[in-house]
Amino acid sequence: MRQVWTCSGLRWSGDGPVLVWGGGRGSPLARGKRVAFGVVDGGVRTCVGARGNPCPVRAAVSRRGTGARCEECARLDRAHSVAADTLADDPRPYHVYLAWFGPGLVKVGITRVERGSARLLEQGAVTFSWLGQGPLMAARRAEELLRAALKVPDRIPYAAKRVVRATLPGPEERVAEIRELHALVGRLDGWPESLSRAPFEPVDHMDVFGLAGLPPAQGVVSELVAGGAISGELCGAAGPDLHLVTGRGVVVLDTRLMRGWDLTGVEGRGGHREEEGNGESESRDGGFGITFPVRELRVADVGVQDGLF
Questions:
Q1: CA–CA separation, 289 and 268 (whole Å)
Q2: So what's the pLDDT on residue 1?
Q3: Residue 52: C-alpha distances to residues 8, 48, 69 (Å)
Q4: Closest-CA residue to 61 (of 159, 51, 50)
Q5: Contact, 226 vs 292, CB < 8 A?
Q6: Structure pTM?
Q7: Measuring CA to CA, how many Å separate 103 from each of 38, 94, 159, 167, 266?
Q8: What is the pLDDT of residue 222?
């Protein structure tokens, strides 16, 4: 009988990405490593619970959702969430940052000071710089100031991040946009008094993510399904995304889709199958393949910005 694991998601550390499993065991991921797993036959994706507590009813959840929570557990999770603005009285200090994901893809955000750059790694920020540090509500006001005065968004879709990773410019161009914005922010009126300013000190994650020479992605796994499997060689990782070389080219796997499934090991497989009419396909070739639905990844579909302003 095959051993079954439950995936808790992808965690980033200074040494790189690690897949975390139930019980706390981790699988470090290095470029060139084979990533292979399947979903058990007859399996159903179930809710992962909220705030360290299991879902009391083990509710079934959508195969395509990245949250992997039922409605009730999602509500409980949001009830103690800085991102959802439901934790306004958090006394811990926060950083405000500018993050760059590609040309024209810049966002502003906040993260707890104690977390360091972990949040930026989790989002797949290629380059970032701190703007300031202070109380939570002051950090929130600074975030809103940038959105209102400079039209800097606080979210960048993952679809937009994925299509530009293989064509990123050199180091000077990667910091140019956030350098300009950092300077503009320094001249803005209305900066919260309790928020200390930080000098422009860009941090680059190009090497951490393995993006130099990254082949263009041909598709992205849209969902996991019972009895399906994937096997590929890791050629890059950013945020929750693994870029895998498979029999159908490079395919992006969002590891958030793995949560809530019972997973098992797989052997090499062969063959190829196309699904008609939905723009998705399944393929298997030479031990590196996919039998999960894959959606074609096209730049025209995601509306990548030509520029920030």
A1: 8
A2: 53
A3: 11, 9, 12
A4: 50
A5: no
A6: 0.88
A7: 36, 27, 14, 10, 38
A8: 96
pLDDT of residue 24: 81
Q: Give the closest residue to 4 by CA, choosing from 241, 273, 264.
A: 264
Place of tokens 């990254």: 214
Quote the pLDDT of residue 88: 64
Q: Enumerate residue ranges in the chain where pLDDT < 50.
A: 84, 269-286, 302-309
Tokens read off for 133: 């540090």
What is the model's pLDDT at position 81? 65
Backbone torsions φ then ψ of 107, nearest 5 degrees: -135, 160
| Cβ 248 vs Cβ 273: under 8 Å | no
Structural contact between residues 39 and 229, judged by C-beta atoms closer than 8 angstroms? yes
Residue 4 tokens, joined: 């079954």
Q: What is the pLDDT of residue 308?
A: 36
Task: Report DSSP letters for 11-46, one per residue.
Answer: EEETTEEEEEETTS-EEE--TT-EEEEEEPTT---B
Structure tokens at 117: 């750059």
Question: Which of 261, 218, 246, 295 has its CA nearest to residue 19?
Answer: 261
Q: Residue 274 has what pLDDT?
A: 34
- On whether the CB atoms of residues 153 and 147 are closer than 8 A, the answer is yes
Give the pLDDT confidence score for residue 286 in this predicted structure: 45
- Kindly provide the b/e burial profile for residues 102-135, where b requires at least 16 CB atoms within 10 angstroms of the residue's own CB: bbbbbbbbbbbeeeebebbbbbbbbbbbbbbbbb
**Contact call for residues 248 and 294 (beta carbons, < 8 A):** yes
Asked if residues 40 and 260 have their Cβ atoms less than 8 Å apart, the reply is no
